[in-house]
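As agreed, record copied across for absentees:
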Amino acid sequence: MSNLETNKRQLSPQKKQAIKLACTKSAMNRTAKRSDTILKSKIDGINDTGEIISKRDLFMLGIGLYWGEGYKRGNNEFGFTNSDPEMIKIYLKILRDVYNIQDEQLVLKININMMFIESQLDIERYWRSVTQINKEQFTKTTVIQSKLNKKYNIEGYKGTIRIKVKRGEFLKTRILESIQQIQRVIKAFPK
């Protein structure tokens, strides 16, 4: 028998209760400190952003989003695909407010996994509601065959949506050159 097991058996019920209480208080203190840190981080995030978003802020956000989610290779079409409805709303705002793209210039396409074919109409309605774009501007939904080992959040699954700008090759060139310029400027920073 180890010393630890021997010591545990020798503790009185009162000491065992005191140890449990001390452990509980310690855990509560750690939780409180973590909650305080999370709250401070949230306040810092709000303060970092401020309450006013300028057109330049939208422009830079749009460049970053396109850099991560936009079509950069292949043909010259402008395309942006994502599954996050808030990101899609923001990107539509960027296209409208920064690049003066009219809704009539947009073509949207929904992609869903074959596992969700029975929900296709609901998913299509969902994305029309999110984007507030006319049904006529949506092309036929693409149903994708996927590997069986991929896991999906079945309850929240809404597929992805692609935003394309008609005759958007010049917009794509403009945005890709903005990305290149940001890279050049950052490389020029002193270390």
Notes: The chain has two domains: 3-49, 55-188.
